[in-house]
Amino acid sequence: MAQRTRPVASDRVPGHAQGAGRGKTGPRRRRRTRFDAPPPRPFALSGWALLPLRAFLGFTFCFAGLQKLANPNFFDANSPSSIQAQLIAATRISPLHPLLGHLLRFAVPIGVVIALAELAVGLGALLGLWTRVAAAGGMVLSLTLFLTVSFHSSPYYTGADIVFLFAWIPLLLAGSGGVLSLDAVIAARVAAENSSGPPVLVPIRFELVQQVCGNYEADTCAARGGQPCDVRRCPFLVDERGSVVERGPDAVDRRTLVLGGTAVAASAVIGAVAAGAAAGIGRAVGGAPSPGGGGTSALSPTGPSAGAGTTSTSAPAGATTTTAPAAASTTTAPSVAGTRIGLASQVPVGGAATFTDPATGDPGLVLQLTKDQFVAYDAVCPHAGCTVGYSAGAKLIVCPCHGSEFDPTTGAVVNPPAQRGLTPIHVAVGADGSLLADG
User: Fold this and answer.
1) Do residues 277 and 302 both lie within one domain?
2) Do 331 and 258 belong to one domain?
3) CATH code for position 320
4) Tens digits of per-residue pLDDT, 322-371?
5) pLDDT (tens digit per residue) in 256-271
6) Are residues 209 and 119 in the same domain?
């Protein structure tokens, strides 16, 4: 009498015949592989779990790069938000200040490289194309910005650059994970060309691997009589192209590199078109307003005036008082001493203008709050060294980097993270209408 056996339940393998052993029931249907279809338990896989982080970083870096290219003020040395002003501010606080001083003459090319690099990194993350390379580039950018801009942010977590630096690490380790990415499309195409099947990741419980491959005990395999474990003898871990450790680059790897390089070149062309369009549109519409806003103009500093008289003593640059002292008032005496920084008429009533502090070389900000009432401050934010500007609408001096706000009448902190106010600069109006600053 034939022994009857009970069938063992097992998971069906995609692509295998579903009607095997039951006679011919019709033509076998081929299941299509979708690179965007979630596998079982997708949140257990790094690619799907990291997809929101990848989308955020990609969008943020693309936006940052396009914003710089579209804003003419970023490349205008007279703007307090320019790359030149940011480098000048960074030389005061950055541990890389000896190097930054030599880079000032190349400020515009550096700004272009930073903007294009941010765009390239963002596109790589969004498209899932060479994701690990994009993550490495994002880490380099974030580390550079941390060392130059936000190194002295206090507390340290108020500086976004260090957060971005660590946010890129998971993508550097895991890549795109084969989820909604061009890397996955390229891998699937190469696999199809080599008839090796789609590279689909499927989670398998380790208990099942132990049952099939034997029990792991002190680097030995119980199913093999205590012999050392051998990955090549396990059907779940075997690599058909050779040992994972010993195998070198082969035709599959070379084909993947060629297709990936082609996709990178095409993405670079798309990015260049987007960058050019952003720059053209930004200049056509005037770009983003300068942080000086509300009638801000740039004063051109000249040599010291020869007027007789004495000057008022201003607070020294970099003073460490916890609250800013009252801003120095201006005088209209016939003869005053100081360095001519421009004409008083260049500062609109209720507006501001930028200049270079003759005493320290820092960017300065002068305001005419009411008719003939001038106040001036060192425009370097005491929080992280960014250059502040005047917002006429809000009637506040604002730091564009971390949002610190200052009272325009005294320079005192209105809104942190800055812990102290702006350093005042004494200015006076000369007999000829010139605006003079101590120095």
Assistant:
1) no
2) no
3) 2.102.10.10
4) 333 344 444 444 455 678 888 888 888 888 888 888 888 888 889 988 88
5) 888 888 888 988 899 8
6) no
pLDDT band at residue 33 under the 50/70/90 scheme: low
Dihedrals phi, psi of 41, to nearest 5 degrees? 50, 60
> How many whole angstroms separate alpha carbon 212 and alpha carbon 216?
11
The answer to whether residue 130 sits within a structural domain is yes
* Residue 239 vs residue 63, higher pLDDT: 63
How many domains does the chain fold into?
3
Residue 312 belongs to some domain of the structure? yes
Whether residue 201 has pLDDT greater than 70: no
pLDDT at 103 (0 to 100): 81
Domain extent, residue 216, equals 201-239
Residue type, 324: A
Phi, psi of 316 (to 5 degrees): -65, 150
First to last CA, the chain: 112
Average pLDDT over residues 227-234: 70
Q: What is the DSSP letter of 4?
A: P
pTM surpassing 0.70?
no
The arithmetic mean of pLDDT across residues 373-384, rounded, is 87
**144, 265: one domain:** yes
**Average pLDDT score, the chain:** 74
Tell me how far apart the alpha carbons of residues 378 and 325 are, in angstroms, rounded to a whole number. 13
Q: Report the alpha-carbon distance of residue 439 to residue 129 in Å, rounded.
A: 54
Higher local confidence (pLDDT), 215 or 54: 54
Question: Does the bond joining 155 to the residue before it have cis omega, within 30 degrees of 0?
Answer: yes
The CA-CA-CA angle for residues 271, 276, 281, to 5°, reads 125
DSSP string, 265-297: HHHHHHHHHHHHHHHHHHHHHT-SPPTT-SS-E
Print burial letters for 187-226: b (CB count within 10 Å at least 16), e (below 16).
bbebbeeeeeebebeeeeeeeeeeeebbeeeeeebebeee
- Supply the DSSP symbol for 319: -
Claim to verify: residue 351 and residue 372 sit in the same structural domain: yes
What torsion, rounded to 10 degrees, do the Cα atoms 65, 69, 74, 75 define? 130
pLDDT at 61 over 90: yes
Is 338 within a domain?
yes
| CB atoms inside a 10 Å sphere around CB 59 | 13
